[in-house]
Amino acid sequence: MDFGAQLPTQRFLVMQLARFGDVIQTKRLVQSLKAQGQVELLVDNSLISLAKLIYPDLLIHGLPAHGTHGPLCLTQLKNDLEVVAQKTYTQVYNLNFSGINFALSTMFSAQSVRGYKLEHGQRQIDFWPEQLMRWTKMRAQAGLNLVDAWGLYADQAMDPALINPVATPKGGGLGVVMAGQNARRSLPPKVLAPLVLAARNRLDHGPIYLLGAGHESRAAKEVAHLLPAALRSEVRDLVGKTSWPELFSVVGNLDLLLSPDTGTMHLAAHLGVPTLAFFLSSAWCHETGPYGQGHLVLQAISDCAPCLEQSPCPHDVLCCNVFSTPQVLAFVSGREDKELPSGITAMVSGFDALGLTYTARSGHDPDHKQRLAFRALAMGVAHLGFTGPVDQRLAQTLFYERDWMLPQQRSWRHE
Q1: Taking 60 as the threshold, does the pLDDT of residue 258 lie above it?
Q2: Which residue in 13, 91, 275, 355 has the most C-beta neighbors within 10 A?
Q3: Exposure of 128 by Cβ count < 10 A (0-12 exposed, 13-18 middle, 19+ buried)?
Q4: Where are the domains positioned within the chain?
Q5: Inter-residue contact 221 to 195 (CB < 8 Å)
Q6: Same CATH topology for 10-127 and 174-369?
């Protein structure tokens, strides 16, 4: 045996066909796999240039996952995937529950695909993503961040504290993201404008950059109009005007980003820029809060939160009203000694062995103890060791008898 010969390099393919923020939230998995071999990433064509900025040392593949249908889609798929189909991958990580993801899994041997796959014409879901889907039954008490949900697919997941830089002000002023993809996760201009003023008072310097998609330009103009006249000259309206590199440059130089749950918020976390995020309705900071040390989330808390955005809100999204209270505006302006009203909690980011955590800095978190019990149990499921006594009632709620049967045919790890 030639002991001087190098072992063949492992090659991994990560298929992430979801949105802007999801590409960034795949970072822990990508970084973990990079420690083991070569990593390639498959994304929607519209996100190729973004992916190359996020992962400059990866080979990026694209396909028309969004917005293209019919024969044209099939032709593009054949051309775009020709390079991928000719390669042999040690492991393929198929991260999205969608028809196209299941179909694409058939390009590879079933044994090499983790996540979601078609096998003998039947949809199969691995043990780990099945657990993740099951845990959504108790979202308020579970709260595993999506970066960790995908990152823990890796056999040896990278230390969560090493994924993104510690957030520090960069000197370039305040950024404001107009809205998220879902209107219920966003604030109307009349609510957002006072928060912008409070955040600007918190910094006490620098311009105010308004960011977002082109269809949000009207809201941007309204927010600017609602600001005091003395501040309007500080506004830089970039809504609908930035390319991916330009957005990178603007966000990467900010002191603070004020945002709902958006891809731009995840970009700021990736770049180590502090975020002050507002989460309401179906947005839950324990699931999709900005990843890293040094971020703050104002989380609306109610009996019906987090809700399902696909269902109409029976309360006319009353949870947005709490963001207009004097106590919240004082807190955002930097007077964090002010007690927050009921219905909202200021959450600060941190880490445990499982991944990102959010704990209350101000206000009441009614599910804190239950969330700790869940995370202790989830650590054992993720092969990170149990950190304390197992909550038996919780275990009976979350797990089925077949989960403990051996061998586990849908195990998400190699044995």
Answers
A1: yes
A2: 275
A3: buried
A4: 10-127, 174-369, 370-404
A5: no
A6: yes
pLDDT digit string, tens, across residues 88-133: 999 999 999 999 999 999 999 999 999 999 998 999 999 999 999 9
> Could you tell me the two tokens for 292?
């890293």
**CATH 3.40.50.720 describes domain 10-127:** no
Q: How far apart are CA 192 and CA 202, in angstroms?
A: 15
Phi, psi torsion values for 319, nearest 5 degrees: -65, -15
Question: Burial of 121 by CB count in 10 Å (0-12 exposed, 13-18 middle, 19+ buried)?
Answer: exposed
Model confidence at 319, in pLDDT bands (50, 70, 90)?
confident
| Pair 342, 351: CB distance under 8 Å | no
Contacts of 382 (CB under 8 A, 6+ apart): 128, 152, 157, 354
Q: Position 252: which residue type? A: G
CATH architecture assigned to 174-369: 3-Layer(aba) Sandwich (3.40)
Residue among 294, 278, 290, 305 at smallest CA distance from 367:
305
Structure-token pair, residue 180: 């998220």
User: What does each C-alpha distance from 262 to 132, 210, 245 come to in angstroms?
Assistant: 21, 14, 17
Lay out the sheet containing 10-15: strands in order across: 59-63, 37-44, 10-15, 91-94, 113-119, 122-125
**Would you state the structure tokens that stand for residue 244, as one six-digit string?**
């991916």
List the one residue out of 177, 180, 295 whose CA is nearest residue 247: 177
Which runs of E-coded beta strand occur in 10-112?
A: 10-15, 37-44, 59-63, 91-94
How far is residue 18's CA from residue 404's CA, in Å, rounded to a whole number? 32
Of 52, 313, 36, 273, nearest to 175 by C-alpha is 273
Structure tokens that stand for 168 in this block: 């520090």
CB-based contact 118:285 (threshold 8 Å): no
Contact partners, residue 256, CB within 8 Å, separation at least 6: 169, 174, 175, 199, 202, 203, 273, 274, 275, 276
Q: pTM for the whole thing? A: 0.93
Phi and psi dihedrals of 212, rounded to 5? 155, -175
User: What's the pLDDT score for residue 279?
Assistant: 96
Query: SS3 for 79?
Result: helix
Q: Is residue 413 pLDDT above 60, yes or no?
A: no
- Report pLDDT digits (tens) over 41-85: 999 999 999 999 999 999 999 998 886 655 666 666 777 788 888
DSSP string, 232-258: HTTEEE-TT---HHHHHHHHHT-SEEE
